[in-house]
Design brief:
With about 625 residues, this protein is of the alpha+beta class. Helices cover about 15% and strands about 30% of the residues. It is built from seven helices and 39 strands. The radius of gyration is 38 Å and the shape is elongated.
Length: about 625
């Protein structure tokens, strides 16, 4: 491994906690026998300390802390219900949080559920009640001189002095932020504090930036207000010089997005504030700061989504074009960037060289639920984990040029819950030169998804669905339903079959003969023409019946062609004989035509189609026409 360092992998599964290691760059990852595997099936959380010296996990009985050098367990903390774990920035403290509950039978109903432990001694130094699950943890200054905690609608600030115990009472308070948020900058002390206050009763939401300890309402360094914001996510760059504000609403009133409406704003510690202009409509999928702190990347818009790089003035630096992507991952040094298309996208991955602004490769890792860069910065991990996906769990390790270096499929009936890289203190690792030279990898053993078109079970033994009579045959030639007589069809299925059959029937004018193509003069005569009725086809298309050629007067050519055609369609088996009275026969044919038109109108009406007033009048004249037709035939 580059830098001479090979980070370990901590793995949490449904059968316990274990650590894997690799002895070399191309060697596979294998379980580290030096780590005593925790066999508990109730492990809820694992976390490496930011300096990589410690590993902590909650196994449902205790919270254990061990060193990452010889895996010796240092402390077993009595926190059986611990649900979340997190270290402070310098790995001095470990925070544990439990789901808040009340027991009416206990003497003390409200008990602390947030605890702070000193890692060196394993001693509990602080506890309080924290009912919030989202944003449950303390927010620290980079040097751990200040800790801020949002409790209810109030932010509590604790000033931590070297060699002193953690204070039991807050030094300062900042109120008026129920359902709001707080974030402390990671830069040098005294830190900046971003404070979000939700809007109420028509007032806009507000985000203010303070320089601690100046927290008075008239002392903000910068401020930004916005109306459409049910919640705000605050994202600092690593130097603590700027913060991005990702605002979102639960419901998009315009109806454009199912996921609500998002917007992106930016504030600097110099007092500047901007609205980040995105030049296309659609959702804002992902935002991420470069570790260099000089630029940030945004993925936004309808699929295929756009990706754009912005500088600290919110000007466009580079446009990555469009792609099937909804997530962003920078490596530790900001020289490589991965775009991922996960969740409702089938695992697209693009790797970009940011120094040259050039795409290195693209690959596909289906069913990926987790992606994380190795701290060394040249390889990354993709994993399929539960509970997001409970089938085909496992993980893969990729070189940034696209080569697959390692693949592990998790055993069946077991679930891979979480997998994380070991961390290292800033300055431990040196930035590698990005090489685009392809390296040799291994072949994946993951089964490829079938490209065959899905066919419902009832259609798998039938004819291939097509058009016309083939589709009708396929619709009826279905596999038998177990427990029911062969050929059984429900009323709903029968209705669908009838609709399909009617759809495939020839239209009334399908057999009509066009005047230009099928009419020809005979022996040079201009006044008399031979008219041939069109072919009339049955559902199988095999039976054809043509009417006898008939000489008709030229002035009534069009109407007689239509009448003769309809007569042919009405009697496919035999040609109707006339009464001998040409005038009476003409009236009968006219009435028959009207009755057929009425039949079509009635079918439209039954399907719920809207009819014109003239069509309704015509449809209501059916009774009169039938009486008239009867009278003509009996006279």
């Amino acid at each position: 491994m580059a830098n001479g360092i090979s980070p370990t992998l901590a793995i949490r599964s449904s059968t316990g906690v274990e650590v894997w290691k690799s002895e070399g760059f191309k060697a596979p990852y294998v379980p580290d026998t030096g780590f005593a595997r925790d066999e508990s099936k109730l492990c809820r959380a694992i976390v490496y300390s930011p300096n990589g010296r410690f590993l902590a996990w909650a196994n449902g009985t205790t919270v254990q802390i061990c060193t990452a050098t010889n895996w010796k367990v240092l402390h077993k903390l009595p926190r059986p219900k611990a649900f979340c774990l997190k270290f402070s920035p310098r790995s001095t403290y470990l925070m544990t949080w439990e789901i808040y509950t009340e027991n009416s039978k206990d003497e003390v109903k409200e008990k602390p559920n947030l605890f702070l432990y000193d890692v060196a001694s394993g001693r509990e130094v602080f506890s309080t009640i924290q009912k919030r699950h989202a944003d449950w943890e303390m927010h620290w200054a980079a040097d751990e001189s200040l800790a801020a905690l949002m409790v209810g609608g109030e932010v509590l600030f604790y000033e931590v002095k070297p060699d002193d115990d953690f204070p039991t009472k807050p030094t300062k308070r900042l109120g008026g932020a129920r359902n709001g948020g707080v974030s402390v900058s990671p830069g040098p002390s005294p830190p900046y504090v971003a404070f979000y206050v939700p809007g109420t009763k028509g007032a806009p939401s507000m985000c203010r930036l303070f320089r601690y300890p100046n927290l008075e309402a008239n002392q903000p360094v910068a401020s930004k207000s916005f109306f459409q914001a049910d919640k705000v996510e605050m994202l600092w760059n690593q130097k603590g010089t700027g913060v991005l504000l990702l605002t979102s609403t639960d419901v998009d009133q315009t109806g454009v997005s199912y996921y609500g409406k998002q917007a992106l704003h930016f504030m600097t510690v110099k007092g500047d504030s901007f609205a980040v202009q995105l030049n296309t409509e659609g959702s804002l999928h992902a935002v991420a700061w470069s570790p260099r702190s000089t630029e940030f990347c945004v993925v936004y818009g309808f699929m295929p989504a756009k990706a754009t790089l912005f500088n600290l003035k919110c000007d466009v630096v580079f446009d990555f074009g469009t792609g099937n992507r909804n997530s962003i991952y920078y490596n530790e040094f900001g020289n490589l960037l991965v775009f991922g298309g996960f969740g409702n996208l089938p695992g697209y991955i693009e790797v970009w060289d940011l120094n040259q602004k050039k795409q290195i490769t693209e690959l596909k890792a289906p069913d990926t639920t987790l992606l994380e860069w190795n701290p060394v910065g040249d390889v990354f991990l993709t994993a399929t984990t539960a509970p997001r996906l409970r089938m085909s769990n496992g993980f893969k390790i990729w070189h940034h040029t696209g080569a697959l270096l390692h693949e592990t499929h998790w055993p069946e009936k077991q679930e891979l819950l979480e997998i994380i890289w070991q961390k290292y203190a800033p300055g431990t690792l040196k930035e590698n030169k990005v090489s685009n030279e392809k390296i040799e990898g291994i072949a994946s053993k993951t089964p490829q998804a079938s490209k065959q078109k899905y066919v419902p079970p009832g259609m798998r033994n039938s004819l291939s669905a097509g058009s016309g009579e083939t589709a009708t045959a396929a619709a009826t030639a279905r596999a038998p339903i177990p427990g029911l007589p062969p050929g059984y069809r429900s009323s709903v299925q029968q209705a669908k079959d009838k609709k399909q059959k009617n759809k495939n029937k020839p239209k009334p004018n399908d057999g009509a003969v066009s005047q230009g193509n099928n009419i020809r003069t005979t022996n040079g005569q201009q006044n008399n023409r031979v008219v041939s009725a069109g072919a009339n086809s049955t559902a199988g298309g095999n039976l054809e019946k043509k009417s006898r050629p008939k000489t008709v007067p030229n002035p009534n050519l069009n109407s007689m062609v239509q009448e003769e055609t309809i007569s042919s369609q009405a009697t496919p088996k035999q040609v109707q004989k006339g009464s001998g009275d040409p005038e009476k026969d003409k009236k009968i044919k006219t009435i028959n035509k009207k009755l057929k038109d009425i039949k079509l109108l009635k079918e439209k009406n039954e399907r719920g189609e809207k009819l014109e007033q003239t069509q309704i009048i015509k449809m209501n004249s059916e009774t009169d026409l039938l009486q008239e037709l009867k009278a003509l035939k009996t006279s």
